Structures are given as C-alpha cells and as structure tokens.
C-alpha cells in the first residue's frame, strides 16, 4: 500500500494524536495497509477509538462505582443547581457537580465543554485548546473589594472619609494592592 491510499492521511492523524506516527509510517513502508498499520501503531482494534459506542460503553452505571455518600453529594449538588442528570455522567475534570457543563452524555458534549472552557484533553477524546494569552493581574478585583470592605468595617472614621471624598476608596484600593503585591500592577 502507498501513501496515496484514501485512508492513509486519516489514520496518520489518528496516530499523530497519540504520538505513534513514526511507527505507523514504518508499518506502511513495510507494506501494511493504513487500517492495519494504525491498529498496530495505536495498539487497539479498529473502530473502537472515537466512536460514541466505545465512549459510552459501561457508563450507564458509573454512579454505582462510587460510594453512596459521594454519589448522593454529587446528585444533590446537581439537583440544587437545577441540572437534569438523567442519562448523563458527571466528569469532575470539566467542573463542579453544580456546573451543568460537567454533566455529559456524548463525546460532543465533552468537546463543546473543552472548547468553551479552553481546556485540552488526550485519551478517549483528543482536543488541543488554542494557546491563550493570559493577562497578569496583581490582585483580583473581588479580593481587593473584600480587603477594602474589611478595612472600612474596622475603621468607621475611614468610612466617613470615603463618604465625603470618593477618591479615598481608590486610594485605599491602591494601598491594598501595593501591600499585598509589593507594588506590582
């Protein structure tokens, strides 16, 4: 078989995802057809990777494998958040039990969550998230707000100063950022 075979490129991509493309190429060079070469290179029978059947196999009773206490906590958190868990599996790596995106029923659900949250995955679902540019921040706004509220609660005179001059709150926040981040902005 040659590299012109219609399935060659598809199987090459599958093997590349798991880091086995060199072995795949070697097997092709020895005359194996792409499907057989991919099966040997990835060490799994054809048709099992990437199929919905393979992904969902054994997932009907996933909660039975958990302790009853843990299972109850997961389902209670989902119920409290208004999530229907019927026919779904909870995957903790996708979010908390109260996050609807963490309850999936298909591979497409998982891919959608990975894309939405900018996460990467390898295994039964392979997805590489685009590189993200992270913005460095000295201190999160909610943390600064919390520290400011604590300072105002401790010092009633400060609260009065802020009421008279709104610039004082900005000065207080700058002081908090400087204190907790050594002046980094």
SSE run:
HHHHHEEHHHH
Percent range for helical residues? 40-55%
Distance between the termini: 60 Å
Query: Tally of extended strands?
Result: 2
Average predicted local confidence, pLDDT: 84
Instruction: Detail the poorly predicted runs.
Output: none
Strand order, biggest sheet?
A: 1-2
H/I helix tally: 9
Characterization of the model:
- The termini are far apart.
- The longest helix is centred in the last third of the chain and has 15 residues, at 167-181.
- This protein has a two-stranded antiparallel sheet.
- Helix 1 (8-17) packs antiparallel against helix 2 (21-29), helix 1 runs parallel beside helix 3 (34-42) and helix 7 (141-154) packs across helix 9.
- The chain is an all-alpha fold and 185 residues long.
- The chain is built from nine helices and two strands; from the N terminus they run αααααββαααα.
- The chain has helices at residues 8-17, 21-29, 34-42, 52-56, 68-80, 107-117, 141-154, 156-164, 167-181, and strands at 89-90, 103-104.
- The chain folds into three domains: 8-49, no CATH class; 55-117, no CATH class; 141-181, no CATH class.
Quick description:
The protein is mostly helical. 51% of the residues lie in helices and 2% in strands. It has three domains: 8-49, no CATH class; 55-117, no CATH class; 141-181, no CATH class.
Features:
mainly alpha; two-stranded antiparallel ribbon; 185 residues
